[in-house]
Write a structure and sequence with these properties.
This protein has a domain at 69-107. Helix content is 48%, strand content 3%. The protein is built from 6 helices and 2 strands. Strands 1-2 form a two-stranded parallel ribbon.
């Protein structure tokens, strides 16, 4: 079990009907210190790459899994958003292949680096 004791969560409770229509579930990020988390993150990256509606340089991208981990801070949601931006850019530009270069060009840091708040 992964500990999230050092992460500060903000209380953002919806009011009224909205609070009855949803359920907040915290999915902790993958931690590099844990071998199983590293393997799981690589599996998630591979699964997401297989869903891309373009040709994908999977071996090349998977060789750089640590770069994806580092830039997504181990958060699958950040990784997914990053890949969506890269795919959208490829489609917009008429490319037929998702490359490492396209991924680098579409880092989320253009709109701000992901930040984890710690105590």
């Amino acid at each position: 079990m992964r500990s999230t004791d050092n992460v500060r969560f903000f209380d953002c409770q919806p009011q009224g009907q909205a609070s009855r229509r949803g359920l907040d579930i915290h999915f902790p990020r993958y931690l590099f210190q844990h071998e199983q988390d590293r393997q799981d993150f690589q599996g998630v990256l591979l699964a997401l790459l297989k869903q891309v509606p373009l040709q994908v340089e999977i071996p090349t991208l998977m060789q750089h899994w640590f770069y994806f981990y580092e830039r997504s801070i181990g958060c699958v949601g950040v990784l997914k958003d990053w890949l969506i931006r890269a795919v959208a850019a490829a489609l917009r530009d008429g490319a037929d292949t998702l490359t490492l270069e396209l991924a680098w060009q579409n880092l989320l840091e253009k709109s701000g680096n992901p930040v984890i708040l710690t105590l």
